């Protein structure tokens, strides 16, 4: 299916002739400013504020979102990990997306700022993600995050972290999350799929190999399930999962293959391939009406998915 026409027009806009960022700090600032330029605030929510998680290894900054709906002691809690290729992004860059997920899905949502590569390569981000899940189980009640239904979610690199903690939690003595929402996740950092060969350049994902190398510099480490969840020997016991891919995305094929494996291993899984979209399309909801419609629908569908479990 061809690209959504408005998305194609956005991608065809003349590129900025400015020199490329000279440092990772500049690269992160540019990423944030580009998203802010096309962003919209999203739906009104009841509460949004910064919070610090006192985890066993280090404090982690996070942002808490509560929807404007009647409070409930059993409203599901979503632990969200932002995308950005493991090198950029934050709870701030993804705040509007999180407001949509919280409001339309009916979740108390905790978005975590994990350590970024290359200053903090693998397994730093994974360890932070796992520590955040442990904090939620052990100390979340102190922040009135006391639902028995804890779910994880993430987009792109954040989807990688969400999947990795689902696999790792039982071995760490933690309950597995009740469900997972994986949005165009990076799941296999060691192998090239057909879609990665087709779409691995352009469409705002110019150098996937570079991003992977910054996060997991050693090729042998990319074979570990903590880095490449798709390489886990079994997915039996993985939480019920809703997985979203995009038709024009380097990560499309590994997402579809992961969903097929989940179903083969007896895991309840819903797969939605948004055929006319690109990687990261949900972050474009402020500029692309079709992306906003899909974001709302995905949030609502996942809310129903969790409550039906």
From TrEMBL:
<protein>
    <submittedName>
        <fullName>Alpha/beta hydrolase fold-3 domain protein</fullName>
    </submittedName>
</protein>
<keyword id="KW-0378">Hydrolase</keyword>
<feature type="active site">
    <location>
        <position position="156"/>
    </location>
</feature>
<dbReference type="GO" id="GO:0016787">
    <property type="term" value="F:hydrolase activity"/>
</dbReference>
<dbReference type="InterPro" id="IPR050300">
    <property type="entry name" value="GDXG_lipolytic_enzyme"/>
</dbReference>
<comment type="similarity">
    <text>Belongs to the 'GDXG' lipolytic enzyme family.</text>
</comment>
<dbReference type="InterPro" id="IPR033140">
    <property type="entry name" value="Lipase_GDXG_put_SER_AS"/>
</dbReference>
<dbReference type="Pfam" id="PF07859">
    <property type="entry name" value="Abhydrolase_3"/>
</dbReference>
<dbReference type="InterPro" id="IPR002168">
    <property type="entry name" value="Lipase_GDXG_HIS_AS"/>
</dbReference>
<dbReference type="InterPro" id="IPR029058">
    <property type="entry name" value="AB_hydrolase_fold"/>
</dbReference>
<dbReference type="InterPro" id="IPR013094">
    <property type="entry name" value="AB_hydrolase_3"/>
</dbReference>
<feature type="domain" description="Alpha/beta hydrolase fold-3">
    <location>
        <begin position="78"/>
        <end position="282"/>
    </location>
</feature>
């Amino acid at each position: 299916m061809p690209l959504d026409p408005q998305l194609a027009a956005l991608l065809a806009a003349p590129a900025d002739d400015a020199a490329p960022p000279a440092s990772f700090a500049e690269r992160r600032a540019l990423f944030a400013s580009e998203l802010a330029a096309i962003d919209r605030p999203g739906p009104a929510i009841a509460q949004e504020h910064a919070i610090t998680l006192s985890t066993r290894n280090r404090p982690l900054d996070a942002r808490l979102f509560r929807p404007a709906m009647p409070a409930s002691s059993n409203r599901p809690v979503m632990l969200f990990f932002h995308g950005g290729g493991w090198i950029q992004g934050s709870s701030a860059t993804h705040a509007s997306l999180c407001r949509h997920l919280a409001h339309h899905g009916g979740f108390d949502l905790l978005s975590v700022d994990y350590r970024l590569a290359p200053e903090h390569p693998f397994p730093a981000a994974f360890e932070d993600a796992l520590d955040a899940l442990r904090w939620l189980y052990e100390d979340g009640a102190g922040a009135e995050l006391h639902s028995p239904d804890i779910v994880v979610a993430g987009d792109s690199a954040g989807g990688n972290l969400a999947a990795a903690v689902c696999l790792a939690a039982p071995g760490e003595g933690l309950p597995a999350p009740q469900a997972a929402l994986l949005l165009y996740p990076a799941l296999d950092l060691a192998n090239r799929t057909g879609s990665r060969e087709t779409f691995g350049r352009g469409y705002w994902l110019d150098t996937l190999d570079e991003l992977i190398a910054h996060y997991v510099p050693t090729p042998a480490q990319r074979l570990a399930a903590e880095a490449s969840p798709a390489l886990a020997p079994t997915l039996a016991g993985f939480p019920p999962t809703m997985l979203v891919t995009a038709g024009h995305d380097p990560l499309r094929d590994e997402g579809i293959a992961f969903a097929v494996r989940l179903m083969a291993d007896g895991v309840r899984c819903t797969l939605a391939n948004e055929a006319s979209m690109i990687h990261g399309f949900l972050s474009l909801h402020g500029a692309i009406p079709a992306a906003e419609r899909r974001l709302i629908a995905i949030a609502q569908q996942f809310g129903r998915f969790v409550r039906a479990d």
